[in-house]
Amino acid sequence: MTNTDQKLRLHIAALSSQPDVFWVTEERFANACSRHPELASKLDADWSWDLVGFDQAVQISDIVIGWRFGDLSLVRKSQRLKWIQLTGAGSEHLQPLDWLPRRIKLTNNTGVHGPKLAEFAGTSILMLNHGFPHYVTQQRHSNWSKQFTTTTAGKTVLIIGLGSTGGSVAKWVKNQLGLKVVGVRRSGQPHRYADSVHIPSDIDELLPHADFVVVTAPLTNETDNLLNRHRLSLLKPTVGLVNLGRARIIDYEALADYLEEGRIAGAILDVFDPEPLPPTSRLWQTRNLIAVPHCSSDDSEHYIDHTLDLFFENLGRLLHGKRLKNAISRKHQY
């Protein structure tokens, strides 16, 4: 699109069922417009809440911002829609993308989570290194049980998913904790903050040498059950595991077994399937496991601000016929 004089109709599909950190409210949008006044002048924006009126609005909109969109066949029928901006990084709830016409671009907000998630990952590694999952478990049973530890310097972290988010983690843990960083990414391309980078087929050789494993990969057909029972068995018994990606990447039943048996020292999990984690799940009581209710990467003050700044950057690209950042690949599913 090159006609910058024509206003685009933007529809924002907000969901009250989500925590308010994810809400694109009129106030937050107005604040973003004040940061990007020239681009904002190209838009006419309106809202729906909880998809009330969304089916009609999507038919007359050029752009949609949101997370869930109800009947996707109605989105497909929109002849005017050019672009959907997600307010999150994952897209597994919309996969496969066979409902999405080629004329409609789908982008996520990858990169927004980086600083917060990197700090959380570093915190998790420190907690694992200094036995916090052990102490939490012992406290539940009123046990006075000491665990002596050393510093993180020189230890090895394996980061599975060395993209934008994983890269932020690599930078933080290398600079702040002095860890040796080994990365796994689909391309195998080197990364500034990784001592070495490998392709996924090398994982079996890498797991036995890791002191910590941090998962930041998206859920795709290739990553589903990537850390299965066999691969978890390759880890050293002193390892600490952090999952900030998606639950189905790891076999949680096998993980729970190995934690109970002392074959894995500790785990901090931020993602589950289903969510919320049912009260009957064994993970609530699993030894040396800390469960976090999927909020590790979402900045309570700046999440939507950063998401909208990314949106406006992409709006500029759209108006000038450039490729959008964070376009989701149909082939790779992220």
Characterization of this structure:
With 334 residues, the protein is α/β, with parallel strands linked by helices. Helix 5 crosses helix 7. The longest helix is centred in the last third of the chain and has 17 residues. The two termini are 24 Å apart. The model has no long low-confidence stretch (mean pLDDT 96).
Short description:
With 334 residues, this protein is α/β, with parallel strands linked by helices.
In terms of topology, how is this protein built?
Elements (H helix, E strand, L loop, with lengths): L7 E7 L11 H10 L1 H4 L2 E7 L4 H4 L5 E4 L5 H6 L5 E4 L18 E3 L6 H16 L2 H9 L15 E5 L3 H14 L2 E5 L11 E3 L4 H4 L5 E4 L13 H5 L6 E4 L8 H10 L4 E4 L19 E3 L11 H17 L15
Parallel strand pairs: 1-2, 1-3, 3-4, 4-5, 6-7, 6-9, 7-8, 9-10, 10-11, 11-12
Helix pairs in contact: 1-11, 5-7
Question: Which short descriptors sum up this protein?
Answer:
7-stranded parallel β-sheet; single chain; 5-stranded parallel β-sheet; 30% helix; elongated; 334 residues; Rossmann fold; 16% strand; alpha/beta; 2 domains
